[in-house]
Each structure stands twice: as structure tokens, then as C-alpha cells.
Amino acid sequence: MGSFRLTNLNPVEFYSLFAIITGLCILIVLFTVKRKPVTGALVSRPKDSSPAAKEWLARALGGLWVLDGLLQTQPAMITRFVGGLLAPLAPGQPWPLNLLIKEGMSLWSLSPVLWNEFAAWIQLGIGLGILFGRHNGYRRISLWVAIVWGISVWIVGEALGNIFVNGSWLSGSPGSALIYTWAAILLLASDDFWRSTYVVNTFRWGFAGLWFLAALLQALPSSGWWGLQLPTYVWGMALMPQPEIISGPLYAWAHALRAAPLLWNGALVASFTLEGILWSIYPHSRLTWWLTTVITFGTWWLGQDFGVLGGMGTDPNSGAIVLGTLICYARLVPIGVFATARDSQSLTTSAG
């Protein structure tokens, strides 16, 4: 179980199979469209009554799943996925989680090309189903598959967001796959739920819980963020192959962190705690929304390095999906960011 021999890892095999599957999918789509009566489609298409916020979240989630599927086709995923991504997750984890990760590594090592093909296509399928399955029921199927696959990725591919070993929002804890799953569950809820105040409260306490957890993980002495681990981590992000316009601020922040790691980590803990408090007390405030957006984007850049750079990124990390949910929330409540007068009146009437 301790060593994994990866042999015959030929990216050409992967891309050849990918091209064949792509061709088959195109043929199936063309055949289906050709057989479908155009007049019937025009007459019977149901009138959409979904709230705009729900549709926004569906597009954001679907787009991210498509991006994740495309990232899974990177050449490094075929040759270095087990050793470069899964193996570093196992040390220090509780033994049941450690065992699951190692079993996943063993299973993947049996046929890296086929497993990578499967992972790429299931994520592309989930994303495309969510994006284009709005009127034919494929969206709900895709959302259920997204929940099952998301939980699997969260456990084996993200080690539960690394909350037990050096967990930090800067590295994406509690895990983007968990937030994807939460979003998929919300999208399975009825339109009536989305027009009620229950969905607003779900977002409210979801954001509050996220930031309180982020503060706790950042403050835990066992995580090691009070010392030089913080600047070392950011420096490692800066060294990733990427445009200088992205790496420059990372280098600058790494130097600042090295000069006063205790002070900077204290500021991070205080910022995350403040976010949790604001979402608990003032969830409809413009200040809460804008401050959260700025902190989320800033940490997505300076901590998570946008998640997709360097050839080994499997997703754009937690910052992307949280920004998507923030825009969705702004369409639900009358905070004057994206909500229309009609949306605001609807929410005020529901609240009353």
C-alpha cells in the first residue's frame, strides 16, 4: 500500500480515447436533434418560472464543473495525479480517511488513463447537464450525480478539505467540492423554496458558518499558521508557473508575511471572525456583502492562487464558487447590488 507504480502512462492514449468519446457524443447529439420535431419543441416548451438567482447559481455551478472537467485533461493529470495530488493528502489524516485516500490511490493506479478519462467526462457531463438540461429534466439528474461525485471528490480528492491537517481558507478549506455539493442541493429545491425567505436564511447561515470555520482553522495552533508556515506557503504559490502580474503580488505578500507572520495571521483570524459576525447580525447589509466579496477575491488570489495555475489544478478552488454564491445572494436580497426593484419587492412581501 505504501508505494504505487505507475507504468505505461501515455497521454496520447488518453487524448485518443477523449477524441473518440467526443466524436460519439457529437453524433448522438446530432442524431437526437435531427429526430426531434422542431414544431413540437416550439409549441411545448414550458414557460420558465425559476427565480433569476436560482438560474444564476445553476449557470455558475455548471460552468465550474465544465472547467473542472477541462482541467482534468491536462497532461500532468495523467502522469502525476496520484503522486503529485493524492499522495500528499494522506499523511497526518485520521486513519479512516488515510485508508480511504490510499485505497483511492491504489484504484486509480490500476488504470490512470481510463480513470482520468472517466473523471474528465463525468465532470463535463455534470456541467453540461446543469447548463443545458433546464427544460428536459437532465439538470436534476446532473445535480444528483454532482452530489455523489462531489462527496467522493471531497473525501478522497480533498481529504475533507484538509480540515484535520493544516486546514486554512487560504488553501481552500473546507473544500470546493463540499461547496459545490451544497450548491447542488440548493438547486434541487423547489422554486417555491427559492421564492421564500428560507433560501435567504440558508445562504446567511452558510456564509456565517464558512467564515467562523475559516477563523477557527486559521487560529488553531496545531495548524501552524502562526509561524513561518504562512509565508512559506504563499511563497510556494508564487513560484508556480504563472504570469508575472499574478505572481508579483504573491511575492510581495510573502515578504510582508515573513516580516510579521504573527501579526498577519492575527489579522486573518480577525477578518474571518468579523465576516462570521456580520453574516450573523447584518446579512442584508451592503457592507457585509462588499467586504466579503473583497476578502474572498483577495484570498482567492493571494492564498489559493486562483487554483488553476501550474498544470496541476483540478478546479479554481473554493474562492470561485463562493464568489458565485455571493452574486446569487445579491440577486435574492434588496441590498442594491444586483437585485432589481421587482426582486426587492417580492422579497419584502415574502418577509412581511
Task: Output the keywords.
mainly alpha; 352 residues; single chain; 71% helix
Number of strands: 0
Uncertain residue segments: 1-7, 37-49, 339-352
The general outline is: globular
Please estimate the helix content.
Answer: over 70%
Please identify the structural class as seen in this structure: mainly alpha
- Sheet-strand content, in percent, reads under 5%
Average pLDDT, all residues: 85
Number of H/I helices: 16
Count of discrete domains: 1
**Gap between N and C termini:** 60 Å
Evaluate the radius of gyration.
Answer: 22 Å
The H-and-E topology, N to C, reads as HHHHHHHHHHHHHHHH
- State the oligomer: single chain
Largest sheet: none
In short:
The protein has 352 residues and is mainly alpha-helical.
Account of the protein in words:
The structure is a single chain. With 352 residues, the chain is mainly alpha-helical. The chain has one domain. Helix content is 71%, strand content 0%. The protein is built from 16 helices and no strands. The protein has helices at 11-35, 38-44, 52-71, 75-86, 95-110, 112-132, 138-157, 176-188, 191-194, 197-219, 229-238, 244-259, 261-281, 286-302, 317-330, 341-351. Helix 8 (176-188) packs parallel to helix 15. Residues 1-7, 37-49 and 339-352 have low confidence and may be disordered.
Layout of strands and helices, then pairs:
Layout: H1 11-35, H2 38-44, H3 52-71, H4 75-86, H5 95-110, H6 112-132, H7 138-157, H8 176-188, H9 191-194, H10 197-219, H11 229-238, H12 244-259, H13 261-281, H14 286-302, H15 317-330, H16 341-351
Helix pairs in contact: 1-6, 3-6, 3-8, 3-15, 6-7, 7-8, 8-15, 10-13, 11-12, 12-13, 13-14, 14-15
